Amino acid sequence: MPKLKVPSPPAPLQPKPKRPGKKTGPEGPVEHGHEATASTIGWIDERTSLSGAGRWMMFRKVPKGTNWFYTLGSATMFAFLSQAVTGVVLAMYYEPEPTRAYESIRRINNEVFLGELVHAMHKWGSTVMVILIFLHMGRTFFFGAYKYPRELNWVIGVVLLILTMTMSFTGYLLPFDQRSYWASIVGVNINGTGPLVGPYLSDFLRAGPYFGATTLSRFYAIHMMAVPGAIAALIGFHLYLVAKLGTTAPPWIRAEAPEATREEKVAA
């Protein structure tokens, strides 16, 4: 009995023919890697649509005259990321106890592999971050980037400056040596001289009537969890407003009038 021929699928369901000269499928491990990466990115993007947000954030118009002064904000952000990474590594070995804090710092510097390098990066990175954020704030002020419609971004930047100084102040006590101990006492007493909220602020920072184990634990919690979380959230909102509103041109660049306005002036 003759067999019936299976009908071919309709044209939309038929596979597209290969291009002339194109080999079927990847050959080497590099080609396989490229194909796997593209497939993974496509799978994620199909379910999250992150490529649109990435294009919106990365590809936008930049005003004429933009120079290296505009990179101070990005430099400050990368300094914060460096502080976050090195801080997490140090937290794996640090012990926030008055009798163990100094010894744990000594152990990080002398016994842990690359501990002295990571500790130095975190210690001097805090100074670099403070310098960069002040330079970034100065650039924003002198370039007039705080004006309409960027007032909210300026307010967020001021809050970020305060949080950065708070993180530097709370981190200074963590080694719990003689210098950091007495310097923190002086700093807390200075905060206590502020009007209205000063005494309450000093009591909150001390976590009691005097410096002790609870003071070190509170400084560690503020430095390691509360302030970095707030900074990360505000940086995200700060970057969103920068992408949405754009950046301002340097003050020495004058805006050019549209062609229609020029023709009207000439005709008049």
Walk me through this protein's architecture.
The chain is built from ten helices and no strands. The chain is an all-alpha fold. Helix 4 crosses helix 5, helix 5 packs antiparallel against helix 6 and helix 7 runs antiparallel to helix 8. The relative contact order is 0.10.
CATH fold naming of the domain at 67-245: Cytochrome Bc1 Complex, Chain C
Q: How would you name the CATH homologous superfamily of the domain at 67-245?
A: Cytochrome Bc1 Complex, Chain C
Helicity, as a percent range: 55-70%
Number of helices: 10
Give the gist of this structure:
With 268 residues, the chain is mainly alpha-helical. It contains ten helices and no strands.
Question: Which features characterize this protein?
Answer:
single chain; 268 residues; mainly alpha; Cytochrome Bc1 Complex, Chain C; 10 helices
